[in-house]
């Protein structure tokens, strides 16, 4: 008998997923191993290692109180209701907010650390040494409610980006609590009894220490490292890892008494699934692990599970920092403003993809461009913030000495563009309200040429527009069980994180996906462990 809670690290890239095998007699079936709960995935229900390590939490966390920030679950609910929409029920969102601070503390019991230092101004990702910040649209006037805004982005304490640190803490805790971890293993098939209950899984493992396993490790690591710089090479490496997985595995049939939890991430690296569900986002830069191929979602579908919000993708078009950029104006093909430039990156990115056909530009005059360049040469910005910004402004901008000349180069209506800049300038002078609701502190007159237009579209090579998928398997909001199309649960099968639809499946905010991974992962675990305990008691009394 193996440990009661057993984790399989799901590393299939675009791997084969097979229909479930029906087991006539579960007790007499020739199982190779038995466990209590089988988890297909690792980290925080997916690829937390490559994340920013930010947990969206509020309602009065220890860190908020230390920073002098007043917050309540009610204030958090009021704000998130605008962002989450109907992705989950109001009751589930309220429960998420009420449990938020406790979930952050739970992460701390497993080795993660959080702190209360705050930044001087709103940013897409805080500078080193800063760990509590506004990670969404809380400061945008249109999102203001009865409660004051509050910083809820809790970044894991670390030097550099925090995802790897959070992942390392969780990995260490998993091992310390006695769970058995299988690396280089992929669930290829679920096993069910005659009633349709999931009772186990077929896991394909590479022989530990073999030449195939060593090459697989190297190719997988290299694919993740090379993707941002050489996507074609990364795809070739992904293909190689898949061939190794299919040519050299040992199938192992594992009985899971309490059930199987699918926690293997989304499907951003599965082109066929993107073409089927979210074709508008095919040109976007893919964020996360190259193992986010939708295999967990496909396993659930093969067992009869329904999916939800598969068309939802977060497109991150961050234009702050440089902090001068949101003082410019974002315009569409006609030269009209279409979105408040100070909104969170996915709010802007999704507006560009969904409403503007993927085409938009950020307009700066000479002063704002010079200010932005100076910021990029300062010490406050991360490399991933400053270098793409500099490349875009120095090498990729469309430039003209007059607005008419810029409109001509961009194929815009010159009169429309001139009217847009005039309206912006009158709002900056306080003569009228800003037409897209930008706050007074972020308004600037644009008057001095040359004029510069930074391409905000997905194909702009100097300034990648990265994305993750947000939809997944439909699950019970009380148990985490995967649901069939008729709304009934598939007993013994759970999904969490981006393998499931959940809190961030309408629109993403920094930290909201990791927070949902913890929320949905703990929900599934509670129910699965209870199922294991019930089955174990029956075995003891039989």
UniProtKB/TrEMBL annotation:
Residues 41-503 form the FAD-dependent oxidoreductase 2 FAD-binding domain. One of its GO terms (biological process) is steroid metabolic process. GO terms for molecular function: oxidoreductase activity. Gene3D superfamilies: FAD/NAD(P)-binding domain, Succinate dehydrogenase/fumarate reductase flavoprotein, catalytic domain. Keywords: FAD, Flavoprotein, Oxidoreductase. The keyword Transmembrane does not apply. Pfam families: FAD_binding_2 (PF00890). Its cofactor is FAD. SUPFAM superfamilies: FAD/NAD(P)-binding domain, Succinate dehydrogenase/fumarate reductase flavoprotein, catalytic domain. InterPro entries: FAD-dep_OxRdtase_2_FAD-bd, FAD-oxidoreductase_2, FAD/NAD-bd_sf, Succ_DH/fumarate_Rdtase_cat_sf. This is FAD-binding protein. It comes from Crenobacter intestini.
């Amino acid at each position: 008998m193996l440990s009661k809670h057993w984790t399989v690290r799901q590393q299939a890239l675009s791997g084969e997923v097979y229909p479930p095998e029906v087991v006539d007699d579960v007790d007499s079936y020739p199982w190779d191993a038995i466990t209590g709960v089988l988890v297909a995935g690792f980290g925080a229900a997916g690829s937390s290692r490559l994340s920013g390590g930010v947990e969206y939490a509020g309602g009065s966390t220890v860190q908020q109180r230390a920073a002098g920030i007043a917050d309540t679950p009610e204030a958090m609910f009021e704000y998130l209701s605008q962002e989450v929409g109907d992705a989950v029920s109001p009751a589930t969102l309220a429960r998420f907010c009420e449990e938020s601070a406790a979930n952050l503390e739970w992460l701390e019991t497993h080795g993660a650390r959080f702190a209360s230092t705050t930044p001087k101004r709103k940013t897409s990702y805080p500078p080193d040494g800063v760990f509590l910040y506004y990670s969404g649209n809380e400061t945008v006037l249109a999102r203001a409610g009865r409660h004051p805004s509050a910083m809820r982005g809790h970044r894991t304490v670390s030097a550099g980006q925090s995802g790897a640190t959070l992942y390392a803490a969780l990995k260490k805790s998993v091992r310390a609590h006695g769970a058995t971890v299988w690396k280089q293993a992929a669930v290829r098939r679920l096993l069910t009894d005659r009633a349709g209950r999931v009772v186990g899984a077929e896991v394909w493992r590479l022989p530990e220490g073999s030449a195939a396993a060593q090459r697989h490790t190297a190719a997988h690591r290299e694919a993740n490292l090379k993707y941002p710089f050489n996507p074609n090479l990364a795809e070739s490496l992904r293909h190689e890892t898949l061939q190794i997985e299919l040519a050299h595995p040992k199938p192992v049939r594992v009985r899971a008494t309490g059930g199987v939890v699918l926690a293997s991430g989304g499907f951003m690296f599965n082109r066929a699934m993107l073409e089927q569900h979210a074709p508008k986002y095919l040109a976007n830069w893919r964020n996360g692990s190259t193992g986010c191929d939708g295999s967990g979602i496909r396993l659930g579908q093969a067992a009869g599970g329904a999916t939800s919000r598969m068309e939802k993708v977060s497109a991150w078009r961050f234009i702050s920092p440089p902090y001068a950029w949101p003082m410019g104006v974002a315009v569409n093909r006609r030269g009209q403003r279409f979105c408040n430039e100070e909104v969170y990156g996915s709010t802007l990115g999704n507006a560009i993809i969904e409403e503007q056909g993927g085409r938009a530009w950020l307009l700066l005059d000479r002063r704002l461009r010079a200010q932005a360049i100076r910021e990029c040469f300062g010490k406050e910005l991360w490399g991933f913030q400053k270098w793409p910004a500099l490349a875009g402004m120095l090498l990729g901008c469309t430039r003209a000495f007059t607005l008419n000349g810029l409109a001509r180069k961009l194929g815009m209506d010159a009169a429309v563009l001139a009217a847009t800049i005039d309206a912006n300038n009158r709002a900056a002078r306080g003569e009228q309200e800003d037409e897209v609701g930008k706050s007074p502190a972020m308004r600037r007159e644009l008057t001095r040429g040359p004029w510069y237009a930074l391409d905000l579209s997905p194909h702009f090579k100097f300034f990648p527009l990265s994305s993750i998928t947000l939809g997944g398997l439909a699950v019970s909001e009380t148990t985490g069980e995967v649901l069939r199309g008729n709304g009934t649960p598939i007993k013994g099968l759970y999904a969490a994180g981006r393998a499931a639809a959940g809190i961030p499946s309408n629109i993403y905010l920094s930290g909201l996906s990791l927070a949902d991974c913890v929320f949905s992962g703990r929900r599934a675990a509670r129910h699965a462990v209870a199922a294991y305990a019930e089955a174990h008691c029956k075995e003891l009394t039989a």
